[in-house]
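Hi,

Apologies if this is the wrong queue. I'm a grad student, and the batch job for 3-oxoacid CoA-transferase subunit A from Pseudobacter ginsenosidimutans produced an output file that my downstream script rejects. I'm not sure whether the problem is my script or the file. Here is the sequence I used:
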Amino acid sequence: MNKVVANADEAVKDIQDGATIMLGGFGLCGIPENSIAALVRSGVKNLTCISNNAGVDDFGLGLMLKTRQIKKMMSSYVGENAEFERQLLNGELEVDLIPQGTLATRIQMAGMGIPAFYTPAGYGTEIAAGKEVREFNGKMYLMEHALHASFSIVKAWKGDTMGNLVFRKTTRNFSTSMAKAGDITIAEVEHLVKPGEIDPDDVHVAGIYVHRIFQGSNYEKRIERRTVKL
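Support response: The file is valid. Your script probably expects a header line. Output copied below for reference.
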């Protein structure tokens, strides 16, 4: 099976209006920059986007919020995006805020084929509304369902033409789980190599989970919030 596609536009061309997509990365670290740009160019709309965060105003998923392509965001941290805040407060954007650990685990469970699990996170808050609650060993837990997507889009440091992926440091967050939770997984990589050039011990996501892969370019790798130590 040939998994290599020419570019981001080719990789996302069959994502249709109303699709549910996962986008990897942690903050702005390791986000699929090329694929997001391709989605903006495609004009696809009414998307449900599952991502740890919603980018910033002029970068990452903030670009898709600006063009009104996102109908619903499912995230755990959205504090760096003024356009997100404006759309939310004006009732223009559906938002499902999920505790970060719960979000990560819901995605992991989807990849493992486990339909639901129990967590204490969110019990006694608005997050618990409408959810099944059970007691275990004297403590109350919410039932949360696994989180699937029609498409998962991730960005890795290196990948081979069979789809095996290697991530670097923080970029591994969410992306390794998301790659296993989508019906179709798209990977953009900084370095696309031949089979055998990645040591099996270094593989973070096996190629069996990846359906399309391409070598990206011109990565900005922006820092979400720059801090300095005095």
